[in-house]
Amino acid sequence: MIASVYTHSPGGVSGTPLRCRRGSPPNLKEAAVIRLVPSARPARRALASPTERGALVDRRVNAPPQLRDVDRYNRRFYERCWRAASLLAMPGVRAPAKPEGLQVEIGCGLRPRLPLSEALFVDVSPTACTKLQRAGARVIRASIDALPFASGAISQLYLFDILEHVSDDVGVGRELARVSAADGWLVLSTPLHVHRWHEFDRVVGHARRYQPRALVDLLCGSGFTLEGFARFGMRPRSAWLVRLGAYYLVHWPRTALRFQERLLRLTQRWARPTQLRRAGVDEFLVQVADADGAVTAWRHRRPN
Question: How far apart (Å, rounded) are the C-alpha atoms in residues 131 and 79?
Answer without folding.
Answer: 12
